[in-house]
Amino acid sequence: MARDKGRDQASRSKQPRADKRPREVFVFTEGEVTEPEFIEFVTGHGTRAQQGRTVRCTVENQSAPSKRRKPLPLVEEAIVKWREVERAAKKAKLKPTDWNWPQVWCLFDRDQHEDIPTAFSRARQAKLHIAYSHPCFELWRLLHYQNYTSTFGGVCDSAADRLKEKPGFVQSYGSNVRTVSREDAKRIRPGQMLGSYKKARGFAQQLSAVHTGPDQTQWDPYTDVWRFVEEGLDVIDY
């Protein structure tokens, strides 16, 4: 059968030019609630680094069981995804130096995981991106209220409890709310973060400067979630 040249040309014309394609960002999160809601918050309220660019962010493991939400399994699944994404990007004529070259991120915490150095090593070899928090993501949320440089001893509940004590945090769940459970406190409310990004980033960068050793399990406290916000989501403020 002869090729339908008109149809071929129409099909090709619908494909966006490489420099006009959105940046595709694929994320694997340890948390089932907080991190996905944070991503939704940032994409909905963030100030873009450059207008006219489009970022499409997808949480890839929303239905994953708990055993697959630990750092090393996250990285292993992300590597499989990255191979697929990289092939598609090259086919679309994108280059690693392009702003919209796709990204695959893993967001995970120290908690009590023992395979973190291995997860970092494998991610580095595969050219994956990591946003890491020690002891947990709640530290990043806490930095929107205050600086914090003392050790948590790897105990996430301590960070979560300090977060709940911050003025206005509990009331962000309702003006008449007086207490909030740990489970409910995992849910993101805009009032907890709006207008405080640059302050939180500054505090987090100070922590990053202190913790530079080869063993990430010793980086207490530490968070570089701001890198995911800026380098992944192309957001510079919220």
Q: What would you say this structure looks like, in words?
A:
The chain is α/β, with parallel strands linked by helices and about 240 residues long. It has one domain (about 20-235). It has nine helices and seven strands, in the order H-E-H-E-E-H-E-H-E-H-H-H-H-E-H-E. The strands form two sheets. The protein has a five-stranded mixed beta sheet, sandwiched between helices. A two-stranded antiparallel sheet has the order 2-7. Helix 3 packs parallel to helix 4 (about 115-125). The longest helix has 21 residues, at about 70-90. The protein is globular, with a radius of gyration of 20 Å. The model has no long low-confidence stretch (mean pLDDT about 95).
State the end-to-end distance.
56 Å
Strand content is: 5-15%
User: What percent of residues adopt helix (DSSP H or I)?
Assistant: 25-40%
Count of discrete structural domains: 1
Q: Please state the structural category.
A: alpha/beta
Alpha plus pi helix count: 9
Q: What form results from the Cα inertia axes?
A: globular
